[in-house]
From TrEMBL, chains A, B:
HAMAP family: THF_DHG_CYH (MF_01576)
Protein name per UniProt: Uncharacterized protein
Described function: Catalyzes the oxidation of 5,10-methylenetetrahydrofolate to 5,10-methenyltetrahydrofolate and then the hydrolysis of 5,10-methenyltetrahydrofolate to 10-formyltetrahydrofolate.
Keywords from the named record: Hydrolase, Multifunctional enzyme, NADP, One-carbon metabolism, Oxidoreductase, Photorespiration
Family per record: Belongs to the tetrahydrofolate dehydrogenase/cyclohydrolase family.
Pfam family, one: THF_DHG_CYH_C
Assembly mode: Homodimer.
Domain of life: Eukaryota
PROSITE patterns linked: THF_DHG_CYH_2
Residue intervals of the Tetrahydrofolate dehydrogenase/cyclohydrolase catalytic domain: 80-195
Pathways per UniProt: One-carbon metabolism; tetrahydrofolate interconversion
InterPro entries recorded: Aminoacid_DH-like_N_sf, NAD(P)-bd_dom_sf, THF_DH/CycHdrlase, THF_DH/CycHdrlase_cat_dom, THF_DH/CycHdrlase_CS, THF_DH/CycHdrlase_NAD-bd_dom
Organism: Solanum lycopersicum
Example of a GO cellular component annotation carried by this entry: cytosol
Length: 368, 368
């Protein structure tokens, strides 16, 4: 069965469509697999970054030639392997912890406070605990029931603030609605605020000539990926999509500290596509599955995709799959480097939390 | 004497040239006055925003018709009158201070600490004192010699922190080089930091859902001008040129809080002209005389020029004149609104300092 480029585009787009459409498309995939795809160049657009450009000049293609050419094209794009980098970072942390333990007998400690019984929060905390253990960081965990009082949480924070064995304190968010999140987060002493969300830290991050004690983990992870893949930031045009306190805003501040020319795109931006298309570096942190399409991307741009969005997928045993804020299938044909989802920024967040905890333990103990 | 458009351009450009060139050009002005200028449309560019477009369609012009048309065109551009707005703001502050005094007997107090004998600093402090008196704010002034110790300054700050009559504390910068500026500024308690430079304030300014106690005076003045001239910010593209801690960076954060799509242009930006030309709103705060030329400006853009740069001017009795970061003569032919220098942002800074002091007195005394 032959299908027109339009059919193929539809299929491609379906991969980057909203959940329900994606699920519907997924049902068709076994019937209309890639081995059945053909397209005629006469209907193909002159320049369409979502197709390998080398193919467009040829009239018809067998399925295998398309696949081979697409693979060749995609091979030129660096897939930024967050899993690998996170492992390298964790190995380095582990070596540093051993060195510190051997020379001054100090083991970094991270305290995590979990209130209520949200399943996702419990999973995050469990993962953090596991990562701590692997890295050689001692973890202290407090699990409080949903109906705990603010005072109880504040008491634990106060105790951890005073505890010399604890170098980082993390309050898992979101807190139950009856608690004042700002008040609780502000109770964590700034020297142990390994999340880096304290406004004093954010202020230092924003100001030239100042140094924050900690950099928020996810944006720190994004920049670390750029560094490890030797992506030049200085003088480059960077667009951050999303302006959340935990990712978008601090990511923009970090890029600016590295001398990028930064624009911030958000829900009120009238022409996000046009602005994004000018960027050499894109950090997408908006939480909208596949929002950034191939047409939004300047050829050769580097893309860090922070989004981790579940979309329905009947072909997946779990009934869903995870996608980023960027339509990976389209982006990989235009970008010069991109983080996959999962396996991109995700693993970096926990690695940076460990990094911040080590940093804190070193600073508190004046260990170089 | 007739002169070609090129000569006219040269003359125009000379007004926006570096100091020495401007001074040299100024010497020629009496010989080559505007009444002698002609240009032929055949050599005039098809679209040149630095000329009134209505004129370009006509073949030749007498000097008077050029001047009339230019004046008509410039009349369409709103000159944002900072002097007038600052006066309005100060009148409003004055009325509020009277109301507060009458109802709870509290008079706002501003303490200014001046160290050393820099002439410019002394002038600033004198102006602030005068503005306070006019507005009905009590000012407390401490002048310390250049060779004072850090401890002496810190002692004064500590006393003012504890003094219930003082609602705002301002340390005049720059401090002598033997003092740790950061340490001294951090000693001012956050509730009296009317300058708004404390990183905790900056952090709150950067974070969504948080409110800074004070907004730094100059950027606050820029936004106030936009508000009072009913310039829509939400959804607009804004470019801030310069990223200083005291103007550029907080101005960008403020514009973002008002839902503009903000880009920050700085010394490492490779194509500042191109990026600036996309802006609906430009805030220039870079300290470079006439850096932003007519060609940098999108027709209809609104320009807030924060720069106050002295340039040599032999025709001026003082030997210099003040110019902004934007070439006013060129900009006024392209922009829809612009602040002049002087008389634009300048008068707003002190007005905002008074506004912050009043705000502080109200907050400390819980007066609505």
């Amino acid at each position: 069965m032959a299908s027109s480029p339009i059919t193929m585009m539809k299929m491609k787009l379906n991969n980057c469509s909203p959940p329900s459409t994606a699920a519907a498309a997924a049902r068709f995939l076994p019937l209309l697999g890639p081995h059945q795809i053909r397209f005629r160049s006469s209907v193909a657009p002159l320049y369409n970054p979502s197709f390998p450009r080398t193919i467009i000049t040829r009239p018809t293609f067998s399925s295998s030639s398309i696949i081979t050419a697409a693979m060749a094209n995609e091979a030129l794009v660096k897939v930024i392997d967050g899993k690998k980098v996170a492992k390298d970072v964790r190995d380095e942390i582990n070596a540093e912890i051993t060195r510190m333990k051997d020379s001054i007998g100090v083991v970094p400690g991270l305290a995590v406070i979990l209130v209520g019984d949200r399943k996702d929060s419990a999973t995050y905390v469990r993962n953090k605990k596991k990562a701590c253990e692997t890295a050689g960081i001692k973890s202290y965990e407090v699990c409080l029931p949903e109906n705990s009082t603010e005072e109880e949480v504040l008491k634990y924070i106060s105790d951890f603030n005073d505890d010399p064995m604890v170098h980082g304190i993390l309050v898992q968010l979101p807190l139950p609605s009856h608690m004042d999140e700002e008040k609780i987060l502000h109770a964590v002493c700034i020297e142990k605020d390994v999340d880096g969300f304290h406004p004093l830290n954010i202020g230092q991050l924003a100001m030239r000539g100042r140094e924050p004690l900690f950099i928020p983990c996810t944006p720190k992870g994004c920049i670390e990926l750029l560094h490890r893949y030797n992506v030049e930031i200085k003088g480059k045009k960077a667009v951050v999509i999303g302006r959340s306190n935990i990712v978008g805003m601090p990511a923009a501040l970090l890029l600016q500290r590295e001398d990028a020319t930064v624009s911030i795109v958000h829900s009120r931006t009238t022409n996000p596509e046009e602005i994004t298309r000018e960027a050499d570096i894109i950090i997408a942190a908006v939480g909208k599955p596949n929002m950034v399409r191939g047409s939004w991307i300047k050829p050769g741009a580097v893309i860090i995709d922070v989004g981790i969005n579940p979309v329905e997928d009947a072909t997946n045993p779990r009934g869903y799959r995870l996608v980023g804020d960027v339509c990976y299938e389209e982006a990989i044909k235009v970008a010069s480097a991109i983080t996959p989802v999962p396996g991109g920024v995700g693993p970096m967040t926990i690695a940076m939390l460990l990094s911040n905890t080590l940093l804190s333990a070193k600073r508190i103990n004046n260990f170089k």
